[in-house]
Write a structure and sequence with these properties.
11 helices; mainly alpha; single chain
């Protein structure tokens, strides 16, 4: 038992570093490991979300001190994500996500290529920014709703959607997008945790160990993110999306 708790603590640290540095929430590391250890999908989501919330809280505090968070945008995005976070938690025990994994992988691959080659198309988008305001808001808040649903369904935090949305649609810098994403992840994951708690799906012992590790790791991740150049951070985030996509495709094929 102690060995397992120590292992989950170490996993939490790694998840906190990656989640804070790239704005992912850390669940991308935690959820696959929990699946491999035999947790049910609903248990994976609920347990991972506690660690995700810890990462979000720790990172939000750190980024807030460094004044990297756009609170107005972060709260607006969260307002659309929270209701769907509740829905995601409610359906996590009954929905078969296999087919959805494939579609989601395609979305992530497309997003990663957009981020990598954004400079070639940024100018065209800038010329039509005003005329496309309605479309931009639809993408932002529609995507945020999807992020909230996915967050509670898979326990991954929703940062894989929040960050590219904030970067591509709201034109925040990558560092601002990562920081603001952490605020949205914190608010959204709390809604998911409360819903899962009502359903009695958490494993609080393992979740607590993961959360403590994530809390510590997030401080390290936010420190590293400030020191890394925006271009490098963009590349790292894009690569992480491709890796996640491969994981989802492999899970669909099995």
């Amino acid at each position: 038992m102690l060995e397992n708790l120590f292992l989950t603590f170490v996993i939490g640290i790694a998840a906190g570093i990656v989640g804070s540095m790239l704005g992912l929430g850390g669940g991308i590391i935690i959820s696959p490991i929990l699946i491999l250890t035999g947790f049910l999908p609903s248990q994976v989501a609920s347990t991972s979300l506690l660690a995700v919330a810890s990462t979000g809280a720790s990172s939000t505090l750190s980024y807030s001190i460094k004044k990297r968070i756009n609170y107005s945008i972060g709260i607006k995005v969260s307002a659309f994500a929270v209701p769907f976070s509740v829905i995601g938690a409610l359906v996590s025990s009954s929905l078969n996500p296999d087919a959805f994994k494939l579609y989601f992988a395609i979305l992530l691959i497309s997003t990663s290529f957009y981020l990598l080659f954004r400079r070639q198309i940024k100018e065209d988008k800038r010329d039509h920014a005003e005329s496309g305001k309605l479309i931009s808001n639809t993408l932002l808040y529609g995507g945020s709703s999807a992020a909230g649903f996915i967050s509670s369904l898979f326990g991954i935090g929703g940062g894989i959607i929040f960050v590219p949305l904030l970067f591509a649609v709201k034109k925040l810098s990558m560092q601002q997008s990562v920081a603001t994403s952490q605020l949205s992840i914190l608010i959204t994951s709390i809604a998911g945790i409360l819903t899962h708690s009502i359903l009695f799906q958490q494993d609080y012992v393992f979740a607590g160990s993961l959360a403590l590790g994530a809390l510590a790791g997030a401080q390290v991740g936010s420190f590293i993110a400030i020191k890394i150049s925006e271009r490098l951070l963009t590349i790292l985030f894009s690569i992480s999306l491709i890796i996640i996509s491969i994981q989802l495709i492999l899970g669909y094929l099995q």
